[in-house]
Design a protein that fits this description.
30% of the residues lie in helices and 30% in strands. The protein is α+β, with helices and mostly antiparallel strands. The chain has two domains: 31 residues; 76 residues, Immunoglobulin-like (Sandwich), CATH 2.60.40.
Length: 132
């Protein structure tokens, strides 16, 4: 009789644990919350000898781009997305890859063709590290 009660208690426990687990999964408590969307307005500071139409704002992780119109581009993406200046696919002979920046509601991105943005970032870091 003791064995029967023990088996009954164990079986009931497994059923209850299974039902509770199923309810938790179905309720979505464990699902990650979607990231908030950010409507970004990006202003282009074009210091290159190229037309503004050459540049776009790119979110390489998501494969999204936004063109500039009168030095302004707008794009809506999840928070934490990295944006960078790039060249439009309309100009395949021109290559420009800006420094990635985290999306914010209002941003200014500078296109500086005098020095590669990546090299400028590296030299800036080195200046800070080794300054007297």
């Amino acid at each position: 009789m003791k064995d029967f009660v023990l088996v009954l208690v164990l079986a009931t426990s497994f059923v209850v644990i299974g039902l509770v687990s199923w309810l938790i999964v179905q309720s979505g408590i464990l699902k990650p919350k979607p990231k908030m969307m950010v409507q970004a307005t990006i202003i282009l500071d074009n210091q290159c000898e190229l037309m503004d139409d050459v540049f776009v704002v790119s979110a390489p992780q998501l494969g999204r781009t936004a063109s500039f119109d009168n030095k302004k581009a707008m794009i809506r993406l999840p928070e934490g997305t990295l944006l960078q200046l790039a060249t439009s696919s309309l100009y395949p002979d021109v290559v420009y890859d800006g420094i990635p920046q985290e999306i914010m509601p209002e941003m200014k991105m500078t296109a500086d063709c005098s020095l590669s943005p990546r090299l400028d970032g590296i030299f800036g870091s080195m200046r800070e590290t080794f300054k007297n």
